[in-house]
């Protein structure tokens, strides 16, 4: 006698078949997503890393020589580590209260060589004044704390005279390249002098060549 199939099993069998197909489709979809993720991960791993970066102290704006630095003059910025000069500072507080040894450009990276002595090292009534010496090799021999006489030389008149005595050298700003190499503008030195002496030096520099004599 032929068995009679229960018609109620057909919908159940169809449901199970549908669930199996859905599960298979989701497995294929998940496998595809995993494959794409693996490819993207491989591409990311193969891509070269960017250059190493470092955060350094920069001048927020253009500053003139002799400026006493404050936090408002300085800003932190990221640069490529290979582009940072030797001794580049990462803490602006190191420079706060110090005096610029020479003018700096906006966004220039700062080092201790860009600053001179603290204002407290300059006596009352004195200023830090720039002194442009004609002989760069002579300037290279100067050291902070040296005491010199400044001599103005008039080449045409063949005359020389001391225009400032007992002048204390504050710093000799470092410049790119060989500082001892002569240049058309000579070499810059920062000195500690009285206000009137600073004016005298500026006037002498406009009409004569300046040199120094050690004491």
Fold topology:
Elements: H1 9-46, E1 53-59, E2 74-80, E3 126-133, H2 136-139, E4 147-154, E5 159-171, E6 187-194, H3 195-207, E7 209-214
Antiparallel strand pairs: 1-2, 3-6, 4-5, 4-7, 5-6
**Structural class designation:** alpha+beta
Largest sheet: 5 strands, antiparallel
Helical content band: 25-40%
Count of DSSP-assigned helices? 3
Tertiary shape: elongated
Model regions low in confidence, pLDDT < 50 over at least 5 residues: 176-183
Strand content: 25-35%
- Give a count of the beta strands, DSSP E runs of length 2 or more: 7
Radius of gyration: 37 Å
Q: Kindly, what is the distance between the CA atoms of the first and last residues, rounded to a whole number of angstroms?
A: 134 Å
Would you mind describing this structure in some detail?
- The protein is of the alpha+beta class and 215 residues long.
- It has two domains: 66 residues, Alpha-Beta Complex (Type Iii Antifreeze Protein Isoform Hplc 12); 94 residues, no CATH class.
- It is 26% helix and 27% strand.
- The chain has three helices and seven strands; from the N terminus they run αβββαβββαβ.
- The strands form two sheets. It has a five-stranded antiparallel beta sheet. It has a two-stranded antiparallel ribbon with strand order 1-2.
- The longest helix has 38 residues.
- About 4% of the residues have low confidence.
């Amino acid at each position: 006698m032929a068995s009679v199939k229960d018609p109620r099993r057909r919908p159940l069998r169809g449901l199970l078949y549908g669930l199996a197909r859905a599960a298979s489709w989701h497995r294929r979809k998940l496998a595809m997503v995993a494959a794409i993720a693996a490819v993207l991960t491989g591409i990311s791993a193969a891509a070269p890393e960017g250059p190493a970066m470092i955060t350094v102290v920069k001048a927020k704006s253009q500053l003139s020589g002799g400026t006493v630095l404050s936090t408002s003059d300085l800003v932190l910025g990221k640069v490529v580590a290979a582009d940072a000069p030797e001794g580049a500072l990462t803490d602006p507080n190191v420079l706060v209260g110090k005096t610029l040894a020479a003018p700096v450009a906006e966004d220039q990276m700062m080092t201790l060589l860009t600053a001179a002595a603290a204002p407290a090292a300059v006596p009352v009534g004195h200023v830090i004044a720039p002194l442009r010496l004609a002989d760069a090799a002579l300037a290279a021999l100067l050291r902070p704390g040296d005491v010199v006489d400044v001599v103005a030389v008039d080449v045409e008149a063949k005359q020389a005279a001391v225009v400032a005595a007992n002048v204390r050298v504050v710093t000799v700003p470092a410049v790119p390249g060989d500082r001892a190499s002569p240049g058309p503008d000579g070499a810059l030195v920062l000195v500690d002098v009285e206000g009137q002496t600073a004016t005298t030096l500026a006037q002498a520099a406009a009409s004569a060549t300046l040199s120094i004599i050690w004491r």
